[in-house]
Fold this protein.
Amino acid sequence: MTRLFRAFGTPLSALILLFSGIWIFGLIAAPQLIMIEQSLWRMERPTGAAEISVQIDGLYNQLDVLALDRATVEAETDAAKRAADLAAIDAKEAGLKVDIAALEETESTPVKVYTLANFGQMGTAHLAIFAKTIAASLAVSAIALVVCYPIAYAVAKLETPRTASVIMLGLVIPYAINELLRIFAWQMILNQNGPVNLLLGLFGFDPVPFLESGTGVFVAMVYAYILFMVFPLYNVLETLDSNQVEAARDLGASTWNIHRRVVIPHARPGIAVGCIMTFMLSAGSYAVPYIMTRGTASPWFTQLIYNRFFEATNWNVGAAYALSLLVVCTLFIFGMMRILKVNLKDIAK
Amino acid sequence: MTRTGTGSTFVLRLYMGLFFAYMFLPLGVMVAAGVNDYSPPSITVWQGFTLRWFTEFWTDARMWSGLVNSLIIAVAVMALALPMGLSGALLLSQLGRRSAGIVYTVMVSPLLTPGLIIGISTVILWRNFGTTAGLFTAILAQSAFIASYAMLMFMARLQRQDHTLEEAALDLGATRARAFRRITLPFLKPTIVTAAVIAFLQSFENYNTTIFSIGGNHTLVTEIGARMRFGISPMINAIGILFILVTVICAVLWSLLRQRERRREAAA
């Protein structure tokens, strides 16, 4: 901290600390912590609510007894005594009603209780959707890696720098075009009366309900996020010294062995970044399932989260769901870093 | 450059051609439907060329209010994320190894967090202060991760800084603040411009974080998303064509600029 003040002087250092503080604590840490906190409590009936309810029942019984008493008193002939007795009953009744109101207030005011029950709310149906979302995201990641590796390698190592830069520009364009538009293109293609079904019809097939079955979500997801694999792979492969590949070939290594022993080990950081990005974007995607299913196919986990917050308005359960997703993504990141032996500095560049 | 025999080069070329077709054909479908005189958007029923979907967009009030909101958010995000990112990078440059590692991890963590988590957690936090979700929460949520991009860009630039100029200024009696203003800031200027453009585009194009943090309000992109779900009017395709045009122009400009910069660096 003293180094900071020595390097920039007091006023500037104060500004730097202010902005960094707003960012780190106000925009990153506080929201995450409050979300975790929100997932750990819920409003419950107060403890002892059952006993209070018995008490209230007892008081209502006394009210009924008083009503009977009142009937007897009203039959009384002596006007003075009748008035006095009635006043006494009124007073008793009023007292009872005050007590009942107070007890009912405590009984119905929920109290904040810390619990893990919000996570338990998931049940088997939602847990299945959670598992499906994760499995599909892993598959998107794997497909992207397999499809993009040859592309990235070919562009980085086999083309002249000039051709490579043209090809990369060609890939930057679809990459930079808004995600929603790329998804929408597939909604049109896979629609009931879209080109794919038209083509299938020419061969005598019945229209396939791609959108309604959830296939469309997966197809569009691969398309939407595959380019997030190409660029990280290309960036690391570009730095691979071609002489290493040449040397391996001269020493008689097969193409398979060159990739396994030379190219892939060098590409580890790129593979990690690509897999993390594609997995995270898929698992956290709201746009793809929202646009590709029209609400007919079974939902994606992100849609469940959205519903907890904005339709069912159970924010505690919503926070628990969101936290579950975050935990899985974090585990995936650590897993990839562990398997590929890369650290955070390699990933975030 | 045929290092691997001609046969495998041919296969690779073919593969790459297929990949490009896979990337661009769907976009072609969308563009074609945007100028097809038929609604709902379709290319299987061709009714002739039209530009009327563009005029429909022109008169759509909700789209325009969305555009205004998008611009407000993008400008505010620029104004917030840039100073935060720069402060973060400067702070990191003066921290010891261990603390720098921890602070760095926190600062890049938004890039590794699903966008919806950033959005919804911001909304949860501000609801506790009685603020409902809207433009304000969207600005904060977007700034949280866009500042990370800015920080990484500033950090890369700062690592290339030659400190002798700064030291000379200090030896000549400049205050720290003055040396920063006259030496470091001009050195950072190109990065400030790039970071500002990136921050603007990231904010403008964002869907995932925004849809979870904007509450009942809307931006151009969230409104487009809402209309896409039912694919009712080719107006969406017309907007798509405009987006594609802007993207292509920006991408070409960017690559030209980068080429010029490389040539200048090579010459220097």
